[in-house]
Specification:
Helix content is 35%, strand content 14%. It is globular, with a radius of gyration of 21 Å. The strands form four sheets. A seven-stranded mixed β-sheet has the order 2-10-9-6-5-3-4, sandwiched between helices. By secondary structure, the chain is α/β, with parallel strands linked by helices. It has a domain at 5-237: Type I PLP-dependent aspartate aminotransferase-like (Major domain) (Aspartate Aminotransferase, domain 2), CATH 3.40.640. It has eleven helices and 15 strands. Helix 1 (15-28) runs antiparallel to helix 7 (229-260) and helix 2 packs parallel to helix 7. The protein starts with a strand and ends with a helix. The protein binds pyridoxal-5'-phosphate. Pyridoxal-5'-phosphate (PLP) binds next to helix 3 and helix 4.
């Protein structure tokens, strides 16, 4: 039986390269707290992403949760249920109410046409997700936000390295969050960042990730979400290999497309005009009638061949059968308005259908072509 193939496999730089990168840390004994590697990674990422402002974090989730707090957002945040739980939990844990908007059936990103009916006097922001690295309709979302005086925060966890007409995903909205988790296209083992426009946010973000420490022994209230030097060093190494990794992923992506296009009942990922992809995922959708099998049946057949794709995203984040009222979950700050939050997947039918039909296939730079072919043979039957 062939070795197990999972949906992803973390990239690692050559061991010698990482050893060289961490050597100065052993000499200085400066292991964390915004040292040399942290500063170097911030600078390198600013250049790579083409932004002026960035703040590094211990992970993408805390970056988003603390950014919502640092921006002083309150009340309702319009978001998508077709995402990893982190997006929705960040809103809840920051004391806000998620209001779920349906998605575009092709890209899986928030459908701008469905946003305005959800806006109330309590809405403070829109928080869409660049799902699979598909760029949201940033122009339409930006216009709606401007018209209604709302902030826009992107969960860009999937979109590192994605550009539209040469402009990186980091540049859209008031703020964009990236995850540098080990499973992402670019990683720092664990890590994350936010890129933002408002220079005043820089101090607030810095304090909130560092216990609220200000100068001269004065404090405000903050948490701890700093990236350490070993993680930053991993990021510096991985950034050097990123373009090559994306090119390798692109070859895997095209091999899937060559093998699978024309398969009845199987929809392949959308390609977006003027968008340079990072080939983060290869999501396929099964329409059971035409394909002759449900998504779950196809997944089971792949599993029998030691191939482990993921139902990503399933379930929707508005589909959790909360045994207790959401307002009394231990991780959620007290908020009398929370009982108004609507956790109901039937209110977002396109997202519900996407989530029932999608399977993300194994995707990483050094996935051998023979394995891609084998996966496709199983899917084509
Ligand atoms: C990975 C991911 C996150 C969380 O990032 P971490 O760095 O793992 O905390 C949030 N949102 C989406 C869409 C993700 O894929």
């Amino acid at each position: 039986m062939a070795d197990k193939i999972f949906v992803t496999r973390s990239f690692l730089p050559p061991l010698e390269e990482y050893t060289e990168e961490i050597r100065p840390i052993f000499e200085s004994r400066w292991l964390t707290n915004m040292g040399e590697k942290h500063r170097a990674l911030e600078q390198a990422l600013k250049e790579f992403l083409g932004v002026d402002q960035i703040c590094l974090f211990q992970n993408g989730h805390l970056a988003l949760e603390l950014a919502i707090e640092a921006m002083g957002l309150h009340g309702e945040i319009i978001t998508t249920p077709f995402t990893f739980v982190s997006t929705t939990w960040a809103i809840l844990r920051a004391g806000c109410i998620p209001v779920f908007c349906d998605v575009d059936p092709v890209t899986g990103t928030m459908d701008p046409e469905k946003i305005e009916p959800l806006i109330t006097e309590r809405t403070s922001a829109i928080l869409p997700v660049h799902v699979y690295g598909h760029l949201c309709d940033v122009d339409a979302i930006g216009e709606i936000a401007k018209r209604h005086g709302l902030k826009v925060l992107y969960d860009a966890a999937h979109a590192f390295g994605v550009t539209r007409d040469g402009v990186s995903a980091a540049a859209y909205g008031d703020l964009a969050m990236f995850s540098f988790h080990a499973t992402k296209v670019f990683h720092t083992i664990e890590g994350g960042a936010v890129c933002f426009r408002d220079p005043e946010l820089a101090d607030r973000l810095f304090r909130i990730k560092n216990f609220g420490i200000e100068e001269n022994e004065t404090y405000c209230v903050g948490g701890n979400a700093k990236m350490n030097e070993f993680e930053a060093a991993m990021g510096l190494c991985n950034l050097r290999h990123l373009e090559e990794q994306i090119a390798m992923r692109g070859r895997v992506f095209r091999r899937y497309v060559e093998n699978l296009s024309g398969t009845p009942g199987l929809a392949l990922p959308a390609e977006q005009e003027n968008v340079k992809s990072n080939y983060a995922y290869f999501p396929v959708r099964f329409s059971a009638e035409k394909y002759g099998e449900t998504r779950d049946e196809a997944a089971a057949r792949l599993n029998a061949e030691n191939i482990f794709p993921r139902k990503y995203f399933y379930p929707l984040t508005n589909a959790f059968p909360f045994e207790r009222e959401i307002a009394s979950q231990p991780g959620v700050p007290a908020n009398p308005e929370l009982s108004a939050a609507r956790f109901d997947p039937s209110a977002t039918p396109e997202a519900a259908r996407f989530s029932e039909e999608v399977l993300t296939l194994p995707m990483y730079g050094d996935l051998p072509m023979e394995e891609v072919d084998r996966i496709c043979r199983v899917l084509r039957k």
